[in-house]
Amino acid sequence: MNKQVVLADFFSGCGGTSLGFSRAGIEPVVAVDSDADAAATYRRNFRRAAVLEKDIRKLDPSEIREVLDPHREALRLFAGCAPCQPFANHQKNQTDEDDRVPLLLEFLRFVRELQPELIFVENVPGLQSCGPPKDPTPSRTGP
Asked: Where are the domains of the chain?
């Protein structure tokens, strides 16, 4: 028997990533985006999913846990498609000054805390050479 897979879509925008995963049979159950227009569009596109219209830096993992709790028998997939503009080749010199750079580390905070079974991160050219964070999130030990 195949287990159901449910999606938590971070930086969801209007739902492009969720649409792709839903077409593959994965149910979007929660989306996070701070843009009001994107969140409103997501709500129209995915009526059954919870939409948390918040800045990820101000979001507590318990808010995601609460939405995922009814799906505890399912495999949890976290998708993190953070804004890629700071890492794009044409913006290389502006990376240190762009306040969007740490957003991917915020996604990592949710991965560490909630330990989903599956993780999807959009690969953007330039992301690999970004260098270590100045204030890394402390890692948790244990399984």
From this structure: 5-121
Q: Compute how many other C-beta atoms are within 10 angstroms of the C-beta atom of residue 98.
A: 14
* pLDDT tens digits along 91-138: 555 555 655 556 888 999 999 999 999 999 987 655 555 444 444 444
Query: 19 with 42: CB under 8 angstroms?
Result: no
Contact indicator for 28, 52 with CB cutoff of 8 Å? no
Residue for token pair 């569009």: 41
Positions annotated as catalytic residues are: 84
Residue whose tokens read 């995963």: 21
User: Taking the CA atoms of the chain, what radius of gyration do you get in angstroms?
Assistant: 15
What number does CATH give the domain 5-121?
A: 3.40.50.150
Token pair 């979007």 is found at: 28
Runs of H (alpha helix) within the chain:
16-23, 36-45, 61-68, 103-114
78 close to 119: Cβ distance less than 8 angstroms: yes
What is the reported pTM? 0.77
CA distance 105 to 96: 14
